[in-house]
Fold this protein.
Amino acid sequence: MKVSSLSARQILDSRGQWTVEVALTLQNGVRATASVPQGKSTGATEARALPAAMAVRNIKSVIATRIIHKDFLDQAALDEFLVRLDGTKAKSRLGANAILAVSIAFLRATARTKKVPLWKHIRDVYGIWVDPTTTTLHPRLFMNVVNGGLHAGNNLHFQEYLVIPRVRTFAESVDVGTKIYHALGAALARAKGHGAANLGDEGGFAPNFKDDLEPFRMIHAAAKKLKLDKKIDLGIDAAATDIKGMTRARLNNLYKKLIKEYAPLYIEDPFSENDFKNFAAITAANAGAGAGVKSKLWIAGDDLTTTNTDRMALAHAKKSVNAIIIKPNQIGSVTEALNAVRLAREYGWAVVVSHRSGETNDDFIADFAYGVAADGFKLGAPARGERVAKYNRLLEIEEGK
Ligand code: PGA
Ligand code: ZN
């Protein structure tokens, strides 16, 4: 597979920050574009994204000149070439954003060449080895309906309050989740005034609350009123690396209360990013005997593991988690993100693919989540165009496209 042209430009993400878009054409004339998201509550061990202008310059002046007319056998060959060309551990020379944008555009152009949907091509590249007894083949949706932490200007310590529909299809999941989302918005406006239905970075509601558990009380009440409470699970991304002014003891008390009162399915980053020990303690105390997806509580690493197989090996050795967040832009290439999924499966962890808080309208991540048969897909609220793009892509995928 030869690349005949590669261009790059800056575009805006959903927070009005510059990010990278590339357009790549293969020698067969097939063209594809790709843009990359950006996080705000980023882990210290994530691959380095450079300022968009620098990343664009690197794509045009370094990457383009080195890859045009070169023959790449497959996705892994291109990604390995780019990683070597960068030469740093954190991709800080060319930028993880520069490399990932090129990697995704190449993936997409290859899928188009084969005339198959992107998720199908991802399955081929992944060489899917999906064990039907441990994976659902159909990620559950992790819908973020209340935003706090760094994603909102409110008083919530936790970053994301997740509704996780427990139904069979994407269409039904979206239906259940949006009904609760709308009912919650109306209840918030009634209880706290009109402005309470304003949205945070990922489209969830973002008013002040009485305490960090009040969102759960209100989500549960809204679901119960709709008779949907038995069709959902609840979860949080605490994003605890960025929680200020709460001791570990207070956090632990809060989790105990949360687990007792709401029996959540999912807690992400309960402690800060190097606290492997306390992750292990909460996993041991709550996760039950079952591994990964079968556990009654998934304790997931995000800032802890950063889609990085070295960090994952550490977390595995210390028994810190039974689930993981996979974000391709934390590691900076499609191949490495697939390697992280593979390793997570080897460890028996539940796999939750995730968008970032700063997104573009690129819907790649929906194909990726479905393609690798993730157990979960975290994609924000069913609001704001950059989130809706992913929801609508899933509905399309479900129709076989
Ligand atoms: P981020 O947040 O994209 O701002 O890092 C998402 C998350 O922590 O899961
Ligand atoms: Zn997170």
Q: What stands out?
A: Residues 160 and 237 are 5 Å apart (CA to CA).
